[in-house]
Amino acid sequence: NAGVTQTPKFQVLKTGQSMTLQCAQDMNHNSMYWYRQDPGMGLRLIYYSASEGTTDKGEVPNGYNVSRLNKREFSLRLESAAPSQTSVYFCASSPGQGTYEQYFGPGTRLTVT
Amino acid sequence: RKEVEQDPGPFNVPEGATVAFNCTYSNSASQSFFWYRQDCRKEPKLLMSVYSSGNEDGRFTAQLNRASQYISLLIRDSKLSDSATYLCVVNRGFKTIFGAGTRLFVKA
Known about the structure:
The complex is a heterodimer.
Chain A: E1 4-7, E2 10-13, E3 19-25, E4 31-38, E5 42-49, E6 56-57, E7 64-68, E8 74-78, E9 87-94, E10 103-104, E11 108-112
Parallel strand pairs in A: 2-11
Antiparallel strand pairs in A: 1-3, 3-8, 4-5, 4-9, 5-6, 7-8, 9-10, 9-11
Chain B: E1 4-6, E2 11-14, E3 19-25, E4 32-38, E5 44-49, E6 55-57, E7 60-65, E8 70-75, E9 84-92, E10 95-98, E11 102-107
């Protein structure tokens, strides 16, 4: 089992460019999450998907969109990147249905210049 | 005020020491509680869930006090490999709030 995988590992964008971060899990989990981590701020929830077919905003959703493509995959899209979106992005999954411990992917380091 | 607050440390302790981390949360509707550890430039990894009755996993003991809205983690007999950042995490359903973390350095 690979657990949670994320692509790409690193990305540099220019302001205004768009990109999609990919995430997949092979643990048959119902719920998936996207976070960003900035120095001194801890992880902040961007969006989550409680189950296939549903998505909801987290704490910092502005500037992002998500797609729960199927039970395994949950993508995060930046439509017009800004320097403030320079961060490390983590995807996570959890069993759901009342069980919330989360398992994380290795992260994507994004720099927007 | 942050919803989940932790002492940022760093805590510098010798091998074999006992060290305790504290965390407070402000929303009394919080339902689930966890400790994660995060190594430098790596993803967070689940260390243990936290229950009101207290729970232990080897050298690690976690405690929850709902009345005081306080969570603790005790590490006994510290190892060099325990050096990491420890994250306190609180859930309200799917809304997950991470503390900023407490850094621990264990020295030989």
